[in-house]
Amino acid sequence: MSSEGQTPVAEKLIDSLAHGRFELFRDGELVGWLYYTRLKRNRYALRHTEVEPSHQHQGVAGAMVRRVLDEIRAREGTITAICPFVVDYLSRTTAYADLIDARYPGYSDRAAAESALRKAVAEARGRAPETHESLIRSEPTRPTRGRVS
Predict the structure, then answer these.
(1) pLDDT digits (tens, 9 = 90+) for 122-148
(2) Nearest to residue 112, comparing CAs of 91, 126, 134?
(3) What is the Cα–Cα distance from 140 to 88, expressed in whole angstroms?
(4) Rounded to an integer, what distance in angstroms lies between the CA atom of residue 22 and that of residue 35?
(5) How does 7-37 read in b/e, with b if 16+ C-beta sit within 10 Å?
(6) Are 24 and 35 in contact (CB under 8 A)?
(7) Beta strand extents in the chain (DSSP E only)
(8) pLDDT mean over 27-38
(9) 93: exposed, middle or buried (Cβ count in 10 Å: 0-12, 13-18, 19+)
(10) Backbone angles phi, psi at 112, to 5 degrees
(11) What pLDDT sits at residue 82?
(12) Contact at 8 Å (CB) between 90 and 58?
């Protein structure tokens, strides 16, 4: 597939301190965000990734995670991977291994992250764990738009 005729997309990542998330803008439009908790001055727990429905399946989540990790590296920070998408992304590359906090690395694979998510939601609801897909469809406290990971 040729890239001729394709217009380059202008991307901008901002750290929205008020929302506790990094936000990715493409051509001025908010297309995705990654929620985090700042655990210490330069340590981030990457908790949850979402992509606007109209921008799903366009590589937004991967581009956003890469840009967030590059930003945390520039800040000389470390990460604890909680979000299943981030965990999966990190499992496919060694380029960001130096960012993973040695003492608190987070989850080692996507299945473990998703299992922990199901368990935490079930405990909060006071019932047995559900599948990740049913959590996406039924969780009333989650935003109704965007991809849940």
Answers:
(1) 787 776 544 444 333 333 333 434 444
(2) 91
(3) 25
(4) 6
(5) eeeeeebebeeeeebbbbebeeeebbbbbbe
(6) no
(7) 11-16, 21-26, 29-40, 43-51, 78-81
(8) 96
(9) exposed
(10) -65, -40
(11) 94
(12) no
d(CA 32, CA 16): 12
The helix, strand and coil proportions of the chain, stated in percent and rounded to the nearest 5, come to 35, 25, 40
d(CA 142, CA 58): 22
Residue 58, both tokens:
């366009």
Report the pLDDT value the prediction gives residue 142, as an integer from 0 to 100: 39
Token couple for 76: 């000389």
Distance CA 44, CA 67 (A): 14
Matching residue, tokens 């991809």:
147
The 8-class DSSP code of residue 109 comes to S
Rounded CA gap, 100 and 108, in Å? Answer: 11
Let me know how long the chain is: 149
The C-alpha atoms of residue 92 and residue 76 are separated, in whole angstroms, by 22
